[in-house]
Amino acid sequence: KQEVTQIPAALSVPEGENLVLNCSFTDSAIYNLQWFRQDPGKGLTSLLLIQSSQREQTSGRLNASLDKSSGRSTLYIAASQPGDSATYLCAVPRKYSTLTFGKGTMLLVSP
Amino acid sequence: DARVTQTPRHKVTEMGQEVTMRCQPILGHNTVFWYRQTMMQGLELLAYFRNRAPLDDSGMPKDRFSAEMPDATLATLKIQPSEPRDSAVYFCASGHGQGALIGHQPQHFGDGTRLSIL
Fold first, then answer.
1. Which residues of B touch A45 (CB under 8 A)?
2. 8 Å CB contact between B112 and B46
3. Are the Cβ atoms of A32 and B104 closer than 8 angstroms?
4. Are A89 and A42 in contact (CB under 8 A)?
5. A3-22 tens-digit pLDDT
6. Is the Cβ of B4 closer than 8 Å to some Cβ of chain A?
C-alpha cells in the first residue's frame, strides 16, 4: 500500500525567504507526482505535475523535483510572499490507480 | 473559469438523519471523484465514476454511504443514517480521463461540503 508523508507538518517563515517542502512515498512505482495547494475553506488547486520520467518541473516561483529511486519530492518556493500561505499537499498515483495524498504542510508566510 | 460546484457548503444535523451532498462537475469532464478530508486521516478517496458508471466505491462504508450520478451534470453522495464519525469535509473533483488511467489526469476540486453530525 502506498504511503505518502510530508514534512514538516507546519512551517512559519518571514516574507522573502526561500523554502523547501518535502514529500516522501513508499512505493516508487509511480506514474507521476502532483503538488496541490489548499486555501482555508477551499478545495485543492493543482500546482505542478511531474511525470515519472522527469526530474523537475517549474512554474513561476515554484520548482518541484522528483527522485523516484529514493521516493522523494521537494517543492521549492522562492521569495515567499504572504499570499503563499496555504496548505500544500503532494499526491502520487500508481499506474492505473487513483491518487494517494499526503496530509500536507501548512505554510504561514508573515509580512 | 469552469468550476466544480458543491452544495451545500455547510451542513449541521443530528445523528441518524439522512444527509445528501451534491456536486456539479465541470461540463465535459467524464470522471468524478468523491473524497473525504479529516485532520486525522487526511484526504481519502471514497468513490469515483467514469461516464456516470461507478468504477470503485471501496473507500465508502457500504452500509450507510451511497453515491450516484443521475445524469452527467449531477453527482450525489448520501449518508443514511449519519453518525458523528462522519463529520468531515467532503470534496468532489472532476477530470477528463481515458481508458484505464485514473489518477493521472488533472483533477479539479470543488470547495467542499463541511459536514457536522451532532
1. 109
2. no
3. yes
4. no
5. 999 999 999 999 999 999 99
6. yes
User: Which residues partner with A87 through β-bridges?
Assistant: A38, A106
- For A96, the closest of B100, B109, B114 (CB atoms) is B100
Please report which confidence band the pLDDT of residue B15 belongs to, taking 50, 70 and 90 as the band edges: very high
**Considering only alpha carbons, which residue of chain B is nearest residue A33?**
B104
Q: Which amino acid is at B110?
A: G
Task: Please name the residue of chain A whose CA is at the shortest distance from the CA of residue B33.
Answer: A98
Q: In the numeric block, which cell numbers belong to residue A39?
A: 486555501
Could you read off the pLDDT of A47-81 as tens digits, one per residue?
A: 999 988 999 999 999 999 999 999 999 999 999 99
pLDDT tens across A81-105, in order? Answer: 999 999 999 999 876 678 899 999 9
Contacts of B63 (CB under 8 A, 6+ apart): none
Residue from B58, B62, B55 nearest B79 by CA: B62
| Amino acid, res. A28 | S
- Cβ neighbors of A29 (< 8 A, separation 6 or more) are A94, A95
Summarised one tens digit per residue, pLDDT across range B60-88 is 988 999 999 999 999 999 999 999 999 99
Q: Do A103 and B42 touch (CB under 8 A)?
A: yes
> How many residue pairs from chains A and B have C-beta atoms closer than 8 A?
51
